[in-house]
Every structure is written in structure tokens, then in C-alpha cells.
Backbone:
């Protein structure tokens, strides 16, 4: 008898992630397909900053401004304690709009308000913090007014203070034919054109943020999406390859097979794991994907 295996992994994973995106207060009404949801999920996981304690490093020219001094102290306290700093991000994050500074150079800008204003966000401020977040560290580059999103001096500050952060992006022996100014960089980002940048040390550097697609989305987010799709395809391939083994040998403890020749696999959230579940025979596939819920990683 032929074995019938139906896979609903992608659509059920999208259902899980849609709910988690909404729990963070984001609108998913424009996401009409499973692909839309999974890509949006990957975009948010790139844009948002994971909750974890970090050591703060400040550039040699870094100074605060009196009007945001208390807000900066509040943000620093959150960072050191490992609390969520995502309420300090730009409200465009909620709409998943283009963030050229982040997508191109990997630099976040954070507001330094002292209280909450709009739901889920701190009070917007004129001066904002420009910072690079890494797993256990955060690098304060500068505090500026709402300007300089394409100013290469931000990269110069990073390179002068923490050259190791830029070293893996260095293009040895490669020089651009054209040196782009701030206006050029802004225009290229808007058009989804990626380039490398020459700094005062005479070297050129690739985008620390991974780059921007022609659709104005994050290249890093698209790579994450492709990784998820490949994982799902691999799970399906492994299950198909072991179909005869399932029929002949697998007798899950306390869960006798209801139908040895029919299987329907879906994704289910189980704590910090995504598991692949056969709803016909009430059985989990052996492989799991360890990934915490969005709210646990990024929520307030």
C-alpha cells in the first residue's frame, strides 16, 4: 500500500509566527501569504534587539546632550540589566519600513525619551543615539539630531575606536571608482543599490548591515528566510526518505499508529522549540528547531 504524506509545515509555521508578531503589537493585516509572514518574521528578528545584558562601549568623541541625559541613563540601565530596548527604536519598525542606516551599515538609532508616549514606544526625541549592537556588547557611536543617516563619519568613528568590528568587511586591494557623498548614499539606498565605501584609512568596506534588496528590504532578513525554507524542505525530504521506516518500525510509546499509511505533518510551538507533528497519528518527528517566541526575545 502506498504511503500518503501531506506537509503543512510552511503554512502552520506562518500561523505561529503571525500570532507572535501580533503579540508584539505589530499589524499583520497586509501579510496575505505564508511567504509574506515568514519574510516579515525574519525582518523583525533582524530589526529588533534581543533582550540580554550587554557591556556598553563609548567612542572617544561620544558626549551626551543635556536634554536627553536622563533618557540616556534610563536606556543604559536597560542595556546593562538585559531589559528590552525596542521601545526606543523608530516607530517605522512597527510598520516594517525601510531602514537604510540599519540595512546598510548595521547601525540602530534609538530615541532617548524619559517616558512612554505612543503604545509600545518611548517619547520621541530630537537627538537620537547611534549604536551598534552585538551579542554581548553595544557600541555607542554618537548622539545626533534626526540627520546624518548616510554620513560616513559614523563609519569613521567605528573604525577609529573599534577597527575589529569593520575588519571582516574590509575589501583588500579594492578601491571604488567613485567616492559617494552623503546625498549619493541616501539615493543609492532608496534605489536598493549596494556599494562599498572608502574610509580615511585608505581601505574600502562592504556593508556591515548586509545590504538592501531592490524591494527595499533587508538582505540579511531574506537570507534568514531562505534558511528557514531550506530547513523546512530538508525536514520534508527526511520524512519522505524514512516513510518505510515509519510504517515498518516506529511504534511511539503510548501512541499507537491510527493509520500507518497516512501522515499529515504540521508545525507546533512547544516552549522554546518548533516541533513537527503528525496530526493523524499523534506523533512528533525526531528533529526540532530551537527558537524562542518573539515576545521572550524582544518584548517589553
Residues:
Amino acid at each position: 500500500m502506498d504511503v500518503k504524506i501531506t506537509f503543512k509545515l510552511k503554512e502552520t509555521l506562518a500561523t505561529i509566527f503571525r500570532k507572535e508578531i501580533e503579540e508584539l503589537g505589530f499589524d499583520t493585516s497586509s501579510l496575505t501569504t505564508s511567504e509574506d509572514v515568514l519574510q516579515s518574521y525574519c525582518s523583525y528578528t533582524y530589526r529588533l534587539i534581543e533582550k540580554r545584558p550587554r557591556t556598553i562601549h563609548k567612542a572617544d568623541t561620544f558626549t551626551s546632550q543635556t536634554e536627553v541625559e536622563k533618557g540616556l541613563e534610563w536606556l543604559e540601565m536597560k542595556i546593562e540589566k538585559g531589559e528590552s530596548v525596542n521601545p526606543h527604536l523608530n516607530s517605522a519598525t512597527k510598520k516594517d519600513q525601510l531602514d537604510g542606516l540599519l540595512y546598510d551599515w548595521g547601525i540602530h538609532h534609538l530615541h532617548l525619551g524619559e517616558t512612554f508616549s505612543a503604545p509600545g514606544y518611548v517619547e520621541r526625541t530630537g537627538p537620537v543615539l547611534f549604536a551598534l549592537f552585538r551579542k554581548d556588547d553595544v557600541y555607542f557611536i554618537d548622539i545626533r539630531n534626526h540627520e546624518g543617516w548616510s554620513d560616513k563619519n559614523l563609519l569613521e568613528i567605528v573604525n577609529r575606536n573599534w577597527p575589529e568590528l569593520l575588519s571582516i568587511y574590509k575589501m583588500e586591494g579594492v578601491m571604488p571608482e567613485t567616492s559617494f557623498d552623503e546625498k549619493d548614499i541616501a539615493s543609492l539606498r532608496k534605489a536598493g543599490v549596494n556599494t562599498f565605501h572608502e574610509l580615511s584609512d585608505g581601505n574600502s568596506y562592504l556593508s556591515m548591515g548586509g545590504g538592501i534588496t531592490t524591494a527595499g528590504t533587508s538582505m540579511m532578513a531574506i537570507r534568514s528566510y531562505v534558511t528557514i525554507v531550506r530547513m523546512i524542505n530538508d525536514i520534508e525530504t527526511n520524512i519522505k526518505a524514512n516513510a518505510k521506516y515509519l510504517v515498518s518500525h516506529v511504534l511511539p510509546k503510548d501512541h499507537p499508529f491510527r493509520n500507518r499509511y497516512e501522515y499529515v505533518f504540521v508545525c507546533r510551538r512547544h516552549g522554546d522549540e518548533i516541533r513537527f507533528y503528525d496530526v493523524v497519528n499523534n506523533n512528533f518527528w525526531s528533529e526540532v528547531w530551537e527558537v524562542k517566541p518573539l515576545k521572550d526575545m524582544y518584548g517589553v
Q: What stands out?
A: The mean pLDDT is 90.
